[in-house]
Amino acid sequence: MNPSGASPAPRTPRGIGAVFRRSSYPEYVRISQILRRETVGGALLLIATVIALILANSPASGLYFAVRDFEFGYEPWHLQLSVGAWAADGLLAIFFFLAGLELKREFVAGDLRTLDRAVVPVAAAVGGVLTPALFFTLVNLGGGAEALRGWAVPTATDIAFAVAVLAVIGSHLPSALRVFLLTLAVVDDLLAITIIAFFYTSDLQPLLLAAAAVPLALFAFLAHRYSYHFGTQPWLAWLVLVPLGVVTWVLVHASGIHATVAGVLLGFAVPVLRSRRGGGPDAGAGLAQTLEHRIRPLSAGFAVPVFAFFSAGVAIGGPAGLAAALSDPVAIGIIVALVLGKPVGILCSTWLVTRTTKASLDPDLAWVDVIGVATLAGVGFTVSLLISELGFGHGTVEDDHAKVAILTASLLAALLAAVVLRSRNRHYREIDLKEKADADNDGIPDAFS
């Protein structure tokens, strides 16, 4: 019996049909660095959320909402937006640009460039999107078209909050599960932005959308043609690429498609590997990795917390208001979808992959570990808040109730995941020691050799 009390998975040799096997050592190091930054970002996100909730329910609420709703910008370009809208449309574009970079790097140069590595997190992400949407829809079938506009709210995982939860509970989650969680969240973001583009677009302007392709194409051409120069001389990127990115964002925004879609498209346009002129793939980090290293602190430390500050502030109205919000079928659907639908979708998809491919779990892991990570993926926040505003309308009763539900569900998912993962912490410590042991002193832990 393993420490979870469940029968151990069949002992399949690592690398031959094993699900959640360890990544390569360079990938392990890279993911560890990313998650450390996301832990700090998650803490800032939590602080911004708490401050927003306090202000929105205090005597200073009038000032808070006045600042959030204050409009500025150039109206002829459709850019006279409120401060909250600038945070959602502008700052979150930085977040999604980073998601585009990360996703492209994973599938071009990361461990997910091979089908056997990619199939599990991709299948889990798809299941983790479809199943919560189904749960929400079933709960709100009698609520009419307005209620059903929130079907996509519970589909995304917030990696910053999830990693912050891991830091708080002190879990020594194995590297394979950390990589899985990060990849799942990145694919989740891609699916979420696709949903936003196709289902939450209003008053589409095809000519403006076509016009956006021009600066985007020029951005992609220059990024590939002069990737070495942009990577070694960052000021060139600010001088050339950033203005093209801003123009692309403006045109996408004016076209009626949510401007954050521009962030993902620009991220996909950045080359991952060095060209031959730049020394080839073995000459060091490509432009995508260089930009990711420079932009992640801006995204995690400023863009996302500021968005959360202006989006999470909901006037709850005391215990009676909280009860009214949580009794709304929209809120019930979101809570059920995130706390139950998300882990069910991820777990079932992962299990289905093992059945159809005759694969088995890595020998160090058990299904209870997958349940813990799948439950943690129910911590939805940043993208869920964004979709709530798009679906229900910023500041509406439904939007406020949905945001209360998102916060409640994320807290419940975090607590449930903490219980499951903490119960396995002793086993995780043993794996952690194994992954750090380097008996031959070659600089690479023996587990990755």
Structure characteristics:
two-stranded parallel ribbon; sodium; two-stranded antiparallel ribbon; 449 residues; mainly alpha; disordered N terminus; cell membrane
Structure description:
Helix 1 (25-56) packs across helix 6, helix 4 crosses helix 7 and helix 16 packs antiparallel against helix 17 (397-422). It is built from 18 helices and four strands. The chain is mostly helical and 449 residues long.
Structural category: mainly alpha
Q: What are the low-pLDDT stretches, counting only 5+ consecutive residues below 50?
A: 1-16
What is the CA–CA distance across the termini?
A: 28 Å
Helix content: 55-70%
How is this structure best summarized?
The chain has 449 residues and is an all-alpha fold.
What is the topological layout?
Blueprint lengths: L17 E2 L5 H32 L4 H9 L1 E2 L8 E2 H26 L6 H25 L4 H5 L10 H11 L5 H25 L6 H20 L1 H6 L1 H22 L4 H9 L18 H25 L6 H10 L1 H29 L2 E2 L5 H10 L5 H11 L4 H26 L2 H12 L13
Parallel strand pairs: 1-4
Antiparallel strand pairs: 2-3
